[in-house]
Design a protein that fits this description.
heterodimer, A: 171 residues, alpha+beta, Aminopeptidase, seven-stranded mixed β-sheet, 5 helices, 7 strands, 27% helix, 35% strand, B: 170 residues, globular
Amino acid sequence: MSQYRIRKPELADAAALAALMAAPSCYGNTLQLPYPSLSLWQQRLSAAEPLKHALLLETGAGQVIAHGSLWRESVPRLAHGARLGMAVHQDWQGKGVGSALLQALLELADNWLGLHRVELTVFTDNAAALALYRKFGFEQEARLRAYALRDGRYEDVLKMARLRPFPLRQA
Amino acid sequence: MSFHIRRIEPGDAGDMARLQSAAAVVRHTSQQPYQTAADWQEKLQQLPAHCHWLVACSAEGDVMASAGLNILQQARCRHVADVFLVVRDEWQGRGVGRALMQALLELADNWLGLVRLQLMAQQDNARAIALYERFGFQHEGVVRQDILQDGQYVDSVVMARLCGPIGVPR
């Protein structure tokens, strides 16, 4: 994985993230819209979001090819959980990019945020994403019917979650 | 027993604080014990336009139950709303919850054009689950260790009711 670097996105990454999410496979399989604007991403990257923990992955040449984030729940009784979302550039799928990014996000969740539960939703036909999530221990919990509009149709999504794999240890 | 249904108002803050912090309600929602009228005053004064909340009031004007729907804010999920219903303990089993849910569903179906109404219920809340089933909510799955309930992480069931032709936006 040495040819990739994972880091926190900065305001200067707005154009790269808008370009990444402008790909149909990226906006289509998340809950984003076509034609993401530069200013939308500038807004997202400059907003104070204490509950959000985002990471991006770039190539050795500095091209941003994947992005993901954890959103902690704000309601106190749900604060042990977070929602995860991620997208990988379609030209870079099947090369370990998604695995590297997801591993980094889950290490954050397990070891530095102390989360108990990480959940996500995924379109039922997104085979690459489903395989990735299963590999990292996510299990299907529910099928949410007609949950999101995608290219003119209300599509089902699967709700998946991963519970913390080991208890927090005391030093 | 007579009651009437109307939209919630900031003046309901005191009643809502009492209703929502009652032990049985706290247990089966994501609410906290110990809520104040001031908390609710602030919340109700700033209730956003995508939140449609109703109350059922007794002849004396006391709030006996509340139900509402919050339309999801992601652009691709504007046809979906989260639903809630709470009924004061002493008014359980007297048709108030049913009447309120009926009113809310009519609002959703006939005036808001929503397609998917969803909710989560704690697994031990059999009475609520039975009511939701009666109104056409179907079980979609179980969310594990979803919510902290009196010192334990407990599971929730996901339920949803669809309206309108599915697969084709109206």
